[in-house]
Amino acid sequence: MKYYVKIIIISFFLIFNLLYGQTNKNWENEKQKAENLFNEGKYDESIILFREVIMSSNNNDLKRESYFWIAKAYMSANKLKQAEENLEYYLNNFKDDGLNYPEAVYQKGRLLFLQGQYQSAIDQLNLYKKNYPKHILVSNSFYWIGESLYALGQFDDSSYYFTIVITKYPTSLKKEASIYKLRLIEHKKSELVLQNLLKWSQEQYLASLNQFKIKEKTLQEALNKYKQYENNIISNEEKERFNKLISENQELKNRIAEFEKQMEILKTKIPDEEFLNRLKQLELKEKLLKSKEETLRVFEEELKKKEKSLE
Q: Has this prediction a pTM greater than 0.85?
């Protein structure tokens, strides 16, 4: 009996001490500890401590702002669904008295960007800029609008916003990132120009190749017909030219096969350093085609004359 009484007394003492200790805990210090953990990149630990503040503290201000910090911690931990839930709760319930409400509006824009909702992110960040034009994170909002436009492929508009960060907010933490993005955009534009040039060159080349194939087929037919007259009296010089023509025709067939292989190579992504070399090679091949076509045209005319003389 005495044993059970002792157990009950000890249990009561522990429960009382736990409740009393929790009630008298310095929750402002606990919230600060949680923020420090967040700043150290220990997001999961900070979330646990912020949750403890919400569950156990009697300080409504601390509890309210803990939702905001939990949302930021989830965003930093790339747990976007949980971040959205806590951020929306904060935005929907603490518009009038939320100490971090302006930043929460900004963070929602960032969250939408991280979720891949780029146009919605632009709209949200424009709303933030309009409502809080003097807020400390306005320069960051220009940057994230630029990032969203970049993700949408709107490079000129994106450049405009990155330039604003650089020129209007020279002390912004996003200045260096904006400079880098501008360089990336210039590189991207150059790449697109080269790709369009390659596409144009490919199309031009294919058109020339198709025309050549038609002429090559016509010439082959002429050669076959010309061959029918081999038993007639033909000078050695004419025979030599005839054989040379056949050889030229075979060489051109081989060239066609080689060019078609090159076209397959050109369809793949080519590193920038090799890009111009490929285009130069393409131009040389087109010139070669034209030269060969001219040679075939002359021989074709001569064959037609010879046919008429044999008829």
A: no
